[in-house]
Amino acid sequence: MDLFRHCFTIVTFGLLIALSASVWAEESVDFRPHFDQVEQYRVTSDGGVVAADEPLASQIGADVLDAGGNAADAGVAAMLTLSVTNPASSGLGGGGFCLYRDAATEQTTALDFRETAPGAAHRDLYAVDGEVDHSLARHGGLAVATPGEPAGLWSLHGRFGELQWSEVIEPARKLAAQGHPISAPLANHLRNMEDTLDDWPELRQVFSDEEGQLLEEGDILVREDLARALAILAEEGVRPFYAGEIADAIVDAVQRHDGILSTEDLSSYALIPREPVVGEFEGYEIHAMPPPSSGGIALIQALNILTHLDAEADRHDPAYLHLVVEALKHAFADRAHWLGDADFIEIPTDKLLSDEYAEKLASRIDPDSVLDTYAYGTTPPDHEMAGTAHVSIIDGHDNMLACTTTINTRFGSLVFVPEYGLILNNEMADFNVEPGEPNIFGLIGNEQNAVEAKKRPLSSMSPTLVLENGRPALSIGASGGPMIISGVFFAILDILIHDVDPLDAITSHRIHHQWIPETLFVEADHLPFADELVARGHSVEARRIFSAVQLVFRNDDDWIGVTDPRKGGIPAAPDPDPDRQ
Ligand code: GLY
Q1: What residues act catalytically?
Q2: 1-293+384-574 CATH
Q3: Which of 13, 261, 376, 551 holds its CA 20 to 30 A away from the CA of 217?
Q4: pTM across the whole model
């Protein structure tokens, strides 16, 4: 029986390889969306830019800059707007990370408002009759981790904001109360989730008309429920969310859906300020998010490895692409081996980011071939782009903000708090609920990222600020699960090293590798270099879904905001300052 199964696996695997090879060879498909009117995704300004996943969020952020707010004020307003206009991706029921660079003090602060496992969570939380049921970590009450977004926005504003808290909340509240047209991406999520939403009537109703039909693009979505929550936050701060009427409603909703989140989990939730991880690359200083994000370490590690390789070639040269992909695979292997919540486990950050270690990994890279799977990194050990949103801002005073927030996959756990319009996250699925087996993003992880009470799941969110000689160069980040890291990585290389125009960098075909699966995903199957990568041993597969990268680039004279057409956000800038002309 075992032998049969083994043979079957080999045959199936062989068939899959043959199939992907033939798909690769015969079809010619470009999986990028059709980039209509591409110039709308770039704005050039003389006084700051907001680049968010969704146009109204950018515009409201820019209005806040116009009203005298700084990047922190604009960021809070933009992120709250995303919770209204882009509710499938992020919101008060989720969490995230922010990096803020204060121009006056020249200090970068990392804010960790990641969701946290409930106190009653344990390693075998998802075991049913001895088998792990991954679906429980995905949808329903057990998928919900303690939300951190309200605490994060409150702290970002409290530390750095200049306008009144209620002032930065008001635009999102008003939008929720008055309604806004449903965007194409939201309509698309609703269409794709229609069958699933049938089992979640409270959530479905939010996005349905009076006849019970799901709303479509352009229909007006009014969110009085969410407006009520935002009004309470504007008036009373975030306390009612963590201990009070909103907290009680959240716990009630989760427990009605068999979850374990308690009022104690909410009342004990705390934002954690952290030291950013810092690296240097080709004269640039990279400030990035430390664990429980894996993004900062993986990004800097991959860049460090490149400094030991001859990676100055043309960005479309297959020899160059092979080297950068191999560097990325080392970084993802170590992500799987070493990374998790640093408050629970030891993470050898200094070693992972050291030049000696980068040199060692670089020396293993073979320019002509991929390595054996376990030669990447150090210790042997269904994708969807929907959840997660990013906002990048550099204001007119060169304060920098990069925030990535999430409720995880599309509409999170699907658990809805009807009184306050909150969609609760399914961040528990970012743990490796079965250590050694891939999680929801196909990411391998071991005990380092196993479920544990009050632990924060490992994330790929990578808000990143780049400085050149102490001056702002780039605020960048992305949504897209593990493809966040590769999306940010390649954008940094393209823009800062290859001098590619930022919009061209964002609209170029993307590639992604995360060590396991042993597949190099590319966003089209007719790239000229593909055959040569296959010849080096890469298993190349065309794929439609990639990250959505948002950025603000600062050159000498201008701030250039670019949003990713893959998600449809449009950057915005405050009105030109007449004194600057
Ligand atoms: N929820 C996606 C991430 O944090 O990586």
Answers
A1: 388
A2: 3.60.20.40
A3: 551
A4: 0.85
